[in-house]
């Protein structure tokens, strides 16, 4: 008999995939996906015009790459956070590499889970971890070879998978790759958890077929209660990490984005202190000691001031 966790996971996968397909209003355009065509903007957006000084190297010519797992519950603001971090960090001398969510790559390839059994779910999760591991290793190796201060942000890290399955299946996935949970955790310099809007900003939580803050149609399957439960599971999974930063919904959405960006730059400070110091000084000059909004923050505030914009974040 299938476990409750397996049934829920299977339903979640099926709903995500079906909803994603049904929400498409531009089938022909959507077919030309990110895996088929190079987007010049996406390829260049994370490159700093004025790269900074590397503070930590593994060996001559190879810099230490700051690896960040960006996680959280549904409708937490991850998309907006990535956009804002990219804008600020590149201006401060860091290259920013944004890795896509592995599960999305698999689903967008046409893979559909429809009430999978335990064996099917284990196969999927093991394959998903293999894909994520290889992507992380490849991106890190190439970024390190540039000799430039680089931050890689992973749209969800390996530990996120633990929140979608029961403990026995999680252990089986780890065993399939001959790795431990400790190994998984120490792969990241820091973990930034954005709390779902359903917890603390419930008036902005929307589910079903909705538009995210970039205007893209997305499908969000979880009810507010399910979103909070999933958010709690993500927090619990990552809790053992020594640099686990939880960004709640206190204050405005712009404040939330600012706190997330500051947290990433603080973590980057440990590897590249000279570049962080320059960034910190520039930030104080731009914003002032009272943290008044710079032109970028003013832009963000205007973008997310209306409830319609805020409700669709991330």
From TrEMBL:
PANTHER family per UniProt: TRPL TRANSLOCATION DEFECT PROTEIN 14
MF GO annotations: GTP binding; phosphatidic acid binding; phosphatidylinositol binding
SUPFAM superfamilies cross-referenced by the UniProt entry: P-loop containing nucleoside triphosphate hydrolases
This protein's name: NadR/Ttd14 AAA domain-containing protein
Native organism: Chrysophaeum taylorii
Domain NadR/Ttd14 AAA: 67-254
């Amino acid at each position: 008999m299938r476990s409750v966790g397996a049934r829920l996971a299977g339903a979640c996968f099926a709903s995500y995939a079906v909803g994603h397909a049904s929400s498409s209003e531009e089938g022909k355009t959507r077919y030309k996906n990110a895996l088929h065509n190079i987007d010049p903007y996406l390829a260049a957006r994370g490159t700093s015009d004025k790269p900074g000084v590397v503070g930590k190297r593994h060996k001559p010519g190879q810099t230490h790459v700051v690896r960040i797992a960006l996680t959280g519950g549904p409708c937490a603001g991850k998309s907006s956070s990535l956009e804002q971090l990219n804008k600020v960090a590149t201006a401060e001398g860091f290259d920013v590499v944004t890795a896509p969510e592995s599960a999305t790559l698999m689903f967008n390839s046409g893979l559909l889970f429809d009430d999978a059994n335990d064996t099917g779910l284990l196969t999927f999760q093991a394959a998903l971890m293999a894909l994520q591991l290889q992507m992380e290793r490849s991106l890190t190796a190439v970024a390190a070879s540039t000799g430039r201060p680089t931050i890689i942000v992973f749209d969800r890290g390996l530990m996120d998978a633990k929140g979608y399955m029961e403990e026995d299946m999680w252990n089986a996935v780890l065993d399939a790759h001959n790795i431990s949970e400790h190994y998984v955790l120490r792969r990241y310099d820091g973990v930034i958890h954005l709390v779902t809007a359903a917890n603390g900003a419930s008036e902005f939580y929307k589910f079903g077929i909705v538009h995210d803050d970039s205007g893209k149609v997305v499908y969000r399957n979880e009810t507010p209660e399910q979103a909070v439960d999933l958010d709690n599971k993500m927090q619990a999974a990552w809790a053992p990490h020594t640099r686990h930063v939880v960004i709640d919904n206190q204050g405005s959405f712009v404040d939330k984005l600012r706190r997330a960006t500051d947290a990433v730059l603080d973590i980057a400070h440990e590897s590249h202190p000279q570049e962080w110091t320059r960034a910190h000084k520039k930030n104080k000059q731009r914003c002032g000691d009272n943290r008044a909004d710079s032109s970028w923050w003013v832009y963000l505030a205007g973008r997310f001031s209306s409830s319609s914009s805020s409700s669709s974040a991330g």
